[in-house]
Amino acid sequence: MEFTVEQIAFMLNGEIKGDKSLKVSQLAKIEEGTEGTISFLANLKYEQYLYTTKASAVIVDKSFEPKKAYSPTLILVENAYTAFTTLLQEYQKLIAGSKKGIEQPSFISEGSTLGGNHYVGAFAYIGNNVTIGENVKIYPHAYIGDNVKVGDNSTIYAGVKIYEGCIIGNHCTVHANAVIGADGFGFAPQSDGTYQTIPQLGNVVLEDHVSIGANTCIDRATMGSTVIRVGAKIDNLVQIAHNVEVGKNTVIAAQTGISGSSKVGENCMIGGQVGLAGHLQVANRTIITAQSGISKNIKKEGTVLSGSPAVENAENLRSHVLYRKLPAIEQRLREVENKLK
């Protein structure tokens, strides 16, 4: 599908510097751009490619000042990264829009309802008393358990398992093989050394505009709900335990694990392979760097933490400087000891 530069600029509320009649049909990275593609420049580390790219058009910030001659038409916007993201979203809608109807074989319980403009892929299973909103896409081999609710404009990708009673909000995306609502890890130790299973009677609630990565697991609450608040984005291979609450617009990178009943605040950023102990409180706007271990409450908003156990990032960096100097310090101590002898 082709669009003119003028049409794209109108969509992005941008200004054109160059030939507005050029046609583009594909998206590309700036260093790989060819005729008929459109790219973007948001990080100045890639500025060199603007002067060599063969892309027909490039989206740039209005504040950007080229240092050399260039060939593509420029679309000037307030934020090039955000604008290109918008373009990607629109392109994705065009691709996904071709998926409609119910493929066979699939199973949909008679007691369940589907909103208009839906798609249900082959071998999908939709249980009893399920409510599916408008414009929802459920890809092949997905399992939707009894009494689940899925809001409007949400996408459930192939192999996703949503256990009974869970709630998926509007504009949510759950990527392939994620498991929403499996039992929380609850076992009571007995006097004879065995463990008795504690029934997990709650559910999982994903509020609106939540994204869940592939192979991520979010456990149902023992009682009440495990809640992922509005706008949270969770990467692949993340484990979120029972009764956890993840705050609004918080982002969590891959291989992070959050233990039961911890509460993560709003607008937090959690790096890859972070571990949080159970029953903790994490303040709003906390940043936790990769491979950190959180063992106590974080009360101050906007704190940046690193290390395991985690401490404030500046303190951790100073400690690492000293750690690297330990061999030299040891040698100096030996020299001093020898002189004293």
Automatic annotation (TrEMBL):
InterPro entries: Hexapep, Hexapep_transf_CS, LpxD, Trimer_LpxA-like_sf, UDP_GlcNAc_AcTrfase_non-rep. It is an enzyme of class 2 (transferase). Keywords: Acyltransferase, Lipid A biosynthesis, Lipid biosynthesis, Lipid metabolism, Repeat, Transferase. One of its GO terms (molecular function) is UDP-3-O-[(3R)-3-hydroxyacyl]-glucosamine N-acyltransferase activity. Pathway: Bacterial outer membrane biogenesis; LPS lipid A biosynthesis. The active site is at H242 (proton acceptor). Catalyzes the N-acylation of UDP-3-O-acylglucosamine using 3-hydroxyacyl-ACP as the acyl donor. Is involved in the biosynthesis of lipid A, a phosphorylated glycolipid that anchors the lipopolysaccharide to the outer membrane of the cell. Homotrimer. Belongs to the transferase hexapeptide repeat family. LpxD subfamily. This is UDP-3-O-acylglucosamine N-acyltransferase. It comes from Flectobacillus rivi. The lineage of its organism: Bacteria, Pseudomonadati, Bacteroidota, Cytophagia, Cytophagales. The gene is lpxD.
